[in-house]
Amino acid sequence: MKEWPLWEVFIRSQHGLAHKHVGSLHAPDAEMAIKNARDVYTRRNEGVSIWVVRSADITASSPGDKEALFEPAASKVYRHPTFFPMPDEVKGI
Amino acid sequence: MRREEALFQYLLRLGDSALVLAQRLGEWTGKAPVIEEDLAMANTALDLLGQARMWLTYAGEVEGKGRDEDSLAFLRDASGFRNVLLVEQPNGSFADTLARQFYFDAWNLRALRALSGSADERVAAIAQKSAKEAAYHLERSTDWVVRLGDGTDESHARMQAAIDDLWMYTGELFEGDAVDQAMVEAGVGFDPAALREPWLAEVKSVLTEATLALPAPGYMQRGGKQGVHTEKLGYLLAEMQFLQRAYPGAQW
Asked: Beta strand pairing status for A47-54 and A6-13?
């Protein structure tokens, strides 16, 4: 149904802390989008919480701006916390 | 009526109604208006199929003649089926399917909640598990009745026609007979008539929200629970049972 808006679906999984983008779908309104998301994306016990947002309401960065946005960060290794000696007792870093 | 015989019939009614509706909903697979609905319809069909399997497995055990869920589903003729007439009605348009679903879901949820307190532990366990699924089914079909009813002129007209056309198959849901009576006395089942008022109240409120009119009281079809069906059931069974009839015992 081409007049139905597109919705982006975010699911928080059983052990996940944050909602994660899982895909998109069509629905006439937000409530039906939640139900459709339940039926399309949580059939295999994937989630405990669903967010939907109209795709049109998402502002995305332009692929053309990639250089300006992201390249300057590439040469700034000092922003990574890799210059601190860590004691052996500290795990998981 | 012997308790076992009544219980067997009672379980067939519950199982067959779920099975036949599952088969009907399955007919939408690949043909629903949008892929989201295709999946949702198939999900509901599979929920109902799961319920049917539990009811029919138990029915076979109660009967005690060695019939399992498969032989009950695939090797009985139409006159052996005990589903309500509502669920065997053809899919028609999307509105027809949703009106049928809404009438059934609103009944099924109440029936399962009533059975959740059954004196028969197995019945209570099946009902408790199924009621959670039925609650979601009802939410979904209610949403659609409201959206189509309170939608465009076209969707409103079609939804009203569907609500009207299927109305005559709703009376049977609330009519008891000797089987129901025996199950009420045994503490296993519920009195069908007792579900009518709450069901009607919910249907009224949803139809009002959907800007639809409640159908006028009229003649009600009956007989499904006793095995007297509309001719549509035969076609449904021909498709559903074909493989096991043509190739008895086939497996894959």
From this structure: antiparallel
Are the beta carbons of B66 and B57 closer than 8 angstroms?
no
pTM listed for this prediction: 0.88
Cβ contact B56:B72 at 8 Å? yes
Domain span including residue B95: 3-246
| Closest chain B residue to A43, measured at CA | B43
Tell me how close the Cα of A29 comes to any Cα of chain B, in angstroms. Answer: 10
Q: What is the average per-residue pLDDT within B190-202?
A: 98
B153: pLDDT strictly greater than 80: yes
Q: Is residue B252 part of a domain?
A: no
The answer to whether residue B251 is domain-embedded is no
3-class SS letters over B96-112? HHHHHHHHHHHHHHHHH
Does residue B162 fall inside a structural domain? yes
Residue B199 scores a pLDDT above 90: yes
B40 close contact with A: CB closer than 8 A: yes
The overall average pLDDT reported for chain A is 87
Closest by CA position to B25, among listed B113, B157, B140, B165: B140
Q: What's the CATH code of the domain at B242?
A: 1.20.1260.10
Report pLDDT for B139: 96
